[in-house]
Structures are given as C-alpha cells and as structure tokens.
Design brief:
The chain is built from 11 helices and no strands.
Length: 342
C-alpha cells in the first residue's frame, strides 16, 4: 500500500506526521509551563535580568579582577540601585497621585459616553454594553483569597528570580559548557553557535526594550507636563511598564493618558495628547527600534501581533509578555542552525 503511493504523497504524509508530533510536543510544553506559571515567569525574568546585567558582571571581572561570586553580587547591587533608589524616591508622590487615577479615568469615560450618546447611540444600548463589559470583568476577576495567594506567589517568584539571576551570573558559562558536553561531539559547534545567537537576541531584546520604554515614557511625559495634565508621574510609570508588552501595552497606556487628559483638561488637550502619543509610538516603532535593536531583532508587526495574541490566549498577560522575546530567540536560533547545516 505504501509503495503504491506517489513520492509527493509519501513526502506529504511524513511531513504532516512530523508537524503533528512537533505540535503535540509544543502543546504539552505550553500546558506544563502554564501549570507552573510562577516558576516559568521567574525563570524568564531571571534570564532577562541576566542578559541585562551580564555586561556589569563582565566589567567587574575584567577591570576589578573580581571573582565570579563578587562580580555577580556587584551586578545585583547595581540592579538594586537602579530600581530601588528611584522607586523609594518617587513612591510617595506616585502612590498619592495614582489613588486618583481611577477617578480621573471614570470622569474621562463619562465625557466619552456623552459624546457617544450625542453621536446617535442610545443611552440604553450604551448602558447594556457597559454592563456586559463589567459583568465579564467581574467574572474574570478573582476573590480576595485568590488575590492574596497571587500576591504571595508573585513575591515568591520575584525572590526565586533574584536567586536565579545570581547563579546565572556566577555560573552561567559553566552551565552552558555542561549542557553542550551532553550533546554528540559532531553537533556541539552548531549548538554553541545557535545558543550564542539566541542569547544575543535575548540580550539585545531586553536592553533595547528598556531603552525604548524609557524613551516612550520620557516623550509622553514631556507632553503631559507641557499640557499640565494631572497624574503625570503615575502615567509615565504606567507607560514605561506597559512598553514591555508589545503593541497592546503602549495602546492601553496611551488610552489611559488620553482619558485622564480628557477628564482634567478637556477635549482640545486630549486630542493634542493623542497626537503626541501617536507620534511617539510611530517614531519608536519606525525609527528607534531598528536603530537600537538592529534589523535582525526586528520582527514584522504581523508576527508580533500573532505572537502576543497566542501568548495571551495560552498564558494570559504573562504569556503575552514572554511571547515576543521567545519568538525572537527562536527565530535567531533557527537562522543559525539553517546557516550551519551542510
């Protein structure tokens, strides 16, 4: 029976079988990662932070002749200095202003609702749509107990990520050598090259995203300050954090800023801020990302959207957060393996 089939049908059957096996393995891997989501996120954050801090540890080794343990501790101290000191200085003002953020967003939504009703949509239809959205949000929300458990899990994941960062900075090279030694000798050079390409993609993505997020926050923050929009500091922080969620995060942060400007300053300032947000995002997407991350790390917007959507469907916000860097790393590893294949 098999011999009676043409070559093209046999090739197609084997290819489809291989694709089904790969898809099944990926599905099981994703399901396992979702089941242990805090651990998965801790490992991913640790890899990102290690990629960011590796130059600091390397500098301590080269310039100060520091041993691996001291170099890793120095890099973690730099991380604390960069994150903790500004957070301590800005936290009182940010927390005080952020408490008013929901009220300002609500006022902005009320104005938007008035415009929508004036444009022809009835109050009953808008109220029904709003109630449906609120009902779905309540259904998706969690109880106080589960929220407390989530906070505990997040703190545990953060602590685990910090410990992993220390060990990766200290022993990362030896870990990579040990993993390569488990492979057949004929495949070690190809695997080492692919690993370098993948790690370089992750490091470039992490550093580039931090720089782009900072530029986004500064650009939109300048617009907020010039227009005199209240809650500028928490909106800048929201813009910086949301930039780590490609496409969707910047859109949500920009919408929140425009709603606050609409509620506080009126429609003219809201339209001006909307133009500022769009201009900053266009400059970031078309100019800054290619310059900072390089062409090899720049994925097509369609690929980014598909990756973010797939990550969000499988792992929620955390899945959307990790989807794009994983896609970038997988693409670079595939390119390296394809180049080195005889």
């Amino acid at each position: 029976m098999w011999e009676s089939l043409s070559w093209s049908l046999r090739y197609g059957a084997v290819a489809c079988g291989c694709l089904l096996l790969i898809a099944a393995a990926l599905y099981l891997l994703i399901r396992l990662a979702v089941l242990v989501a805090p651990l998965t996120l801790a490992i991913f954050v640790a890899l990102l932070l290690t990629a960011l801090l590796q130059p600091v540890a390397g500098l301590a080794r080269r310039r100060l002749r520091a041993p691996d343990t001291v170099a890793a501790l120095a890099a973690i101290l730099v991380l604390f200095a960069v994150l903790v000191v500004p957070a301590v200085l800005l936290w009182p003002t940010t927390a005080e202003q952020a408490a008013d953020l929901p009220q300002q967003m609500g006022a902005g939504w009320d104005r938007t609702r008035e415009w929508i009703v004036g444009a022809g949509l009835s109050e009953e239809q808008l109220r029904g749509l709003t109630e449906q959205i609120q009902e779905r949000a309540r259904a998706a929300g969690s109880s106080a107990a589960s929220a407390a458990i989530g906070v505990v899990e997040a703190l545990g994941a953060a602590l685990l990520a910090l410990v992993l960062v220390f060990f990766l900075l200290k022993d990362g090279g030896r870990m990579a050598d040990w993993a390569l030694a488990r492979l057949p000798e004929r495949d070690r050079d190809r695997a080492a090259g692919a690993a370098r390409e993948g790690w370089g993609a992750l490091a470039g993505y992490a550093r580039g995203t931090v720089v782009v997020a900072a530029i986004d926050a500064v650009g939109i923050g300048i617009g907020l300050l010039i227009l005199g929009v209240p809650l500028a500091l928490p909106l800048v922080v929201l813009t910086f954090v949301a930039a780590f969620l490609p496409v969707i995060g910047a859109t949500v942060a920009g919408a929140v800023a425009v709603l606050v400007a609409l509620a506080a300053n009126g429609p003219v300032d809201a339209l001006i801020l909307l133009a500022v947000v769009i201009a900053v995002q266009q400059i970031e997407g078309n100019v800054l990302q290619p310059l900072i991350m390089g062409r090899t790390l720049r994925l097509h917007p369609a690929v980014v959207l598909v990756a973010v959507t797939a990550g969000g469907l499988t792992g929620g916000v955390a899945g959307a957060f990790v989807a794009v860097p994983i896609t970038a790393v997988a693409y670079q590893v595939w390119r390296s393996l394809r180049r080195s294949t005889p």
